[in-house]
């Protein structure tokens, strides 16, 4: 990264953005400030920042309609919060975390020329507003029933159900219309266009809450949402401020939206800021994951492994996933609490799961790859502008998918990703090339290690199709109840055991703080299912083989032990225990 240039351009890179938004009031009359109350429009404020994939007040996104997968639809959700968890906002204002948070904003504003005292007052107001908003969001524990997160309205119906405000210049129609008019999208709004409101309680209370705050604070917070995310792209002294804040927060947390758009909080056990090079790798993988992935697979991924994985051959991954699916079906047939009808449909759903292994072939085709990225231009020097461009491109492409057939690869996951996924709307499991490596997998490993590694992950992802949220989708990936009432009741009874068991895990290093058994439920069900299926599949493999695999030379360890050693190794990481609690194990 060209840090000399970054230092030379200093804060000036952010000024065009601040001007476009209409000024950041906290900066007073300094450049980037010059905000005028008379020009205030909540609609424009939100859309201008949404355009750069940042989400003050409303988080809009386009995704498959959960009940009609033939089309894509606009979803509106709450935007989450800057501090990682709701409970952080309950801390007293003089707590180290709150002080560090306010200090961070103050230091950033001072760098742009703000008056310290005014900046501090503004940041306190920002925190007040944010706390009020966090309190009207639906807690994660109550976001596991996906039917309740699917509230369909036409654009015309929005105003009848959700407050608008002349004072703030905000109507739902106006907001959606402006969103669909951002550069490069320009769709005309149709009154009958469908919108899915995800967090309905939040959306109902949003405008009434905002009306309690001055426009200055509403604007300050909206701009803080985007500035806070861009601190890491500014010169080194800004990163130092961020580092000081992260230290106070003990562990670094970020929330990301999974492929299936289920919000998952991941807490990384790191109290320090990531080095520039790591950050740069993340950015390239996040925004240009397919071309980078092309280079990655050419260099690192064994073609032979993929060929075996994709076609019906005795080759390992394909063979292993067949065996694991078989053990899933056997376990299903043994369930005494699930009635016969539900069991039959469950088996059908399991057989319908599509598998994606390694990467999509299209990334090896120059023409297709060029077509996919034809609208992307990267400047060799201007890092900050590149970031804004990529953020905006993401939003434009997302919105364009509402009405046009934008060219996308079928499988848009970066092949270098070290993770695996289950996508409920597609009913498919995905194993990018990045995870098909040690310690999870190696074609020359004994099968015990591979079943204990990638095998347990395959089982984990299959089980996601049947966990407390995945089970709400049918074999086609549509949100639709396919379980009998009796089986649902029984499932809910049984899941209480999981909630209680995991909800009682605690660690002395974290002052006895307990795991949240409800928000980790899906992952815990998947972990348990995964290890059980894979272990049984491994034992079946051994029975078919007729004898145990040959022992590893020099190690007095059985293959059953190796299975569990690799299982543990795959899940192990250096997360600080204080951070681990309340988090969700990967993947
Ligand atoms: Zn999972």
Task: Explain this structure.
By secondary structure, the protein is of the alpha/beta class. The chain has 2 domains: about 15-250, Orthogonal Bundle (Neutral endopeptidase, domain 2); about 300-360 and about 415-580, Collagenase (Catalytic Domain), CATH 3.40.390.10. Helices cover about 50% and strands about 10% of the residues. The protein contains 22 helices and 9 strands. The protein has helices spanning about 5-10, 15-20, 40-50, 95-110, 115-135, 155-160, 170-180, 200-210, 215-230, 235-250, 275-285, 290-300, 305-310, 315-335, 340-350, 365-370, 385-400, 445-465, 485-505, 520-545, 560-570, 575-580; strands spanning about 60-65, 70-75, 150-155, 195, 250-255, 265-270, 355-360, 420-425, 430. The strands form 3 sheets. Strands 1-2-4-3 form a 4-stranded mixed sheet. A 3-stranded mixed sheet has the order 7-9-8. α13 (about 305-310) packs parallel to α14 (about 315-335), α14 (about 315-335) packs across α20 (about 520-545) and α18 crosses α21. The longest helix is centred in the C-terminal third of the chain and has 25 residues, at about 520-545. The chain starts with a helix and ends in a 7-residue tail after the last helix. About 35% of the residues are buried. Residues about 250-270, about 310-315 and about 575-585 have low confidence and may be disordered. The structure holds zinc ion. Zinc ion binds next to α18 and α20.
